[in-house]
Amino acid sequence: MIKNVLRRKIVAASASLSAALLLSSCMTATPYQPEVRGQRIHGGYSEQRLANNRFRVTFDGNTLTSRERVEGYLLYRAAELTIKEGFDWFRIVDRETDRDRREYIEPSPFYRPWYGYVYWRPYWRYYRPHYGWQYWYPYEDNPFWADGIDVRTVEEFEAHAEIEMGHGITPHEKNIFDARKVRDELEPSIERPKER
User: What is the annotated signal peptide range for this record (predicted)?
Assistant: First the structure.
């Protein structure tokens, strides 16, 4: 009987470890990649041609991708696309960054009242100025216990820009960028998908 219990615990522990490793391998920020449905890591870049020298460029990040990274990858894609199309510079005509924010309220994974021990209950003693030493017991309604709720906030960012491309020397204006200079400066910070 003890061997069966031990065997079940080992199987359960190895299953939990396998699941954790599988999840951790999928939990990474969106790399610089084209956005294709069904790919291993959500998000990436896409573009839509509006005219011969105009595109709408988008970069969509997952919940682990910062706003700065999403906007940097969008700028890099605009530079890369400009060079690919045979142009020298690009002007950002219009741009915006969308933020999708969601809050999840779940029971805290650590909230298991007294772990099944009915007669054992923790208490804390703490000091408050002007009130002296106070006691806290879990049977009282007290915000210190936080009602066993875990609140998570998840954000995702998607950046869009309409760009106009041009030939020749880069004009010195606020929203105009030399495509090769942008590509070369941002290249060291670009993370591409890892090979399987």
Answer: 1-29
